[in-house]
Design a protein that fits this description.
This protein is mainly beta. About 10% of the residues lie in helices and about 40% in strands. It is built from ten helices and 33 strands. The strands form ten sheets. Strands 21, 23, 24, 26, 31 and 33 form a six-stranded antiparallel sheet that branches. Strands 12-20-19-14-15 form a five-stranded mixed sheet, with no helix packed on it. A five-stranded antiparallel sheet has the order 22-25-32-27-28, with no helix packed on it. Strand 4 and strand 5 form a beta hairpin. The termini are far apart. The relative contact order is 0.09. Keywords: Hydrolase, Signal.
């Protein structure tokens, strides 16, 4: 993955240094007969990493009487140490990052700095990063070395996850950045071929690389007060729509966007052709021309994204979604290649929460063709003949609310009961508010004849209320359902085990009558309010 155009290092003739990482040590060897640049290997340990359990319990160390450093003590064991508050540690700096780069400059033409983050350190069971940064010393190493080798510093990033490297990208002394993941036992051979121009890399990033964590969902003030202050992001919110995660929903401008990647040449796109109308039950082709406008042979990865203009889900569908791509191999300088992308509309299907199935919506779609999700070179529009989001009948039978919401804010899912889960028949979760103002929305609810609403609810609050609104969380208020706290229940689940859960009850209330299909929103006025199911009541049932 080339993040900036990398100079081909084929004409270096000076004696240089090669650092080889072995399983037990790093060996430095003089190599007078090999033409390679000086190579830096930085530790992949991120000094900002904090191992934790649910963001609260740290990973402690203790020093034995014989001076041994013992890792693995938990908080309770550490606190039992009689002198746990009196342990002092002294930092000894052996060498500042890149401090000998000035000396290396005398004997070397270029420098390669290898940095990154090993997965065994930054991710894993009960291990998470508090931010996206490289270790502080790694960033310092890059900048210090680049200052001594302006325009002749190549940074190699080795990582399995995105990193915040905007400062390195914008360092004027860094000439190129190359990213590669953990690619097997021949990865170093592949890296050398890419660095020396034996191969033109054409990889693409599979996620956005954000500048920082400012666009990620924040912990609530209540949670923030209970955790290590270095953790500010709510890593439990995995809903990309609500949290505005990924290129499909994010408003953030990343350092590198989804699909990004450069190579040793440049390309131009032209002559986009596609049928104006297609059917959802078959594939269709998108054709274009790609010309190599540079001086080197390389592959190119052509990417096609779509956006639905007319979705029943409105602004809650992705802004842009990858629908097809093709790696076009070995395009020579000046060559024009005809490219055909075959698109299956089901690759941009949506989940119909009312019919409980995936389907391709009818309507107009924007087509975007480019080199990445934020580098669009050609656009077009098609009309797809497909299906429509179904109208939901909530009068004949109660429906599980969790299964039928298409948008939510702040809520989480809570298991309704062990007994229901054991049946393996679905409807396992209740929508649960986490704060006042949380909401969920159900699309295309048939409101004809409805004058009341029945909810299957539970709550730990003395008094709870749920507002019923039409068309948006702030739309016309149709009514309010109010109820009291519900008592816990216990029952035998076999094997001598007893389930203890919060009990549910029915809560009903009248609503203003409206006609036709409407998006129906429930707005929670309080914390830990749970809704299992929802049912509309006809006029003769509203008072029951």
């Amino acid at each position: 993955m080339v993040m900036q155009i990398l100079p081909v290092l084929q004409s270096i003739t000076r004696k240089v240094l090669v650092a080889i990482q072995t399983s037990t040590a790093m060996k430095i060897m003089a190599t007078p007969d090999i033409s390679v640049p000086a190579l830096w290997l930085a530790s992949s340990f991120n000094t900002d990493i904090f191992q934790y359990s649910f963001l609260t319990n740290g990973f402690y160390f203790k020093v034995e009487d014989d001076g041994k450093l013992i890792a693995g003590t938990d908080v309770a064991a550490f606190n039992q140490n009689p002198d746990c508050d009196d342990v002092d540690f002294t930092e000894v700096v052996l060498q500042q990052p890149g401090s000998n780069s000035q000396t290396l400059k005398i004997e070397n033409d270029y420098n390669i700095v290898i940095v990154g983050a090993a997965p065994r350190i930054v991710t894993g069971e009960s291990i998470d990063r508090p931010n996206l940064n490289l270790g502080t010393q790694q960033a310092e190493l890059v900048h210090n070395v680049a200052q001594q080798f302006p325009g002749k510093t190549i940074v190699v990033i080795k990582s399995e996850s995105p990193l915040a490297v905007d400062d390195i990208q914008n360092d004027p002394n860094v000439s190129a950045i190359l990213y590669y993941g953990y690619s097997g036992q021949y990865e170093n051979k592949a890296l050398a071929e890419a660095l020396f121009g034996g191969y033109a890399p054409a990889g693409r990033l599979t996620s956005d690389w954000l500048k920082d964590i400012s666009s990620l969902p924040k912990l609530s003030p209540e949670v923030q007060a209970t955790v290590d202050p270095r953790y500010t992001v709510d890593m439990t919110n995995a809903d990309p729509l609500e949290a505005k995660l990924t290129y499909r929903y994010s408003d953030a401008t990343p350092t590198y966007a989804f699909g990004y990647g450069l190579t040793y040449t440049t390309f131009a796109y032209s002559d986009l052709r596609v049928r104006p109308t297609v059917n959802a039950n078959g594939t269709f082709d998108v054709n274009l021309k790609v010309i190599n406008t540079g001086n080197n042979t390389s592959d190119e990865v052509v990417q096609l994204y779509v956006h639905s203009r007319d979705s029943a889900y409105g602004s809650y569908v992705p802004k842009k979604q990858l629908a097809a791509f093709k790696r076009v191999g070995s395009i020579t300088p000046g060559e024009t290649r005809d490219v055909t992308l075959t698109v299956d509309p089901h690759d941009f299907a949506v989940w119909d929460v009312n019919k409980q199935k995936y389907m391709v919506e009818s309507g107009r779609y924007d087509l975007f063709v480019g080199r990445s999700s934020d580098n669009i070179l050609l656009t077009s529009e098609i009309t797809v003949n497909g299906e429509t989001i179904g109208s939901l009948d909530l009068k004949s039978k109660a429906k599980n609310l969790w299964d039928h919401t298409y948008v939510n804010n702040g809520v989480i899912g809570s298991e309704v009961s062990k007994a229901r889960t054991a049946l393996y028949q679905g409807e396992y979760y209740a929508v649960t508010s986490t704060k006042d103002g949380d909401y969920v929305g159900i699309p295309n609810v048939n409101m004809n004849g409805a004058k009341g609403l029945k909810l299957r609810v539970a709550s730990t609050s003395p008094t709870s209320s749920i507002e019923v609104r039409a068309d948006s969380p702030t739309g016309t208020k149709l009514g309010t359902i109010t109820f009291h706290s519900t008592a816990p229940v216990e029952y035998d689940i076999g094997g001598g085990k007893t389930a203890k859960e919060l009990g549910y009850t029915d809560a009903t209330g009248a609503i203003t009558q409206v006609s036709g299909d409407h998006n129906l929103y429930l707005v929670f006025r309080g914390n830990d309010i749970r809704v299992d199911s929802i049912k509309l009541l006809a006029s003769d049932e509203a008072g029951k």
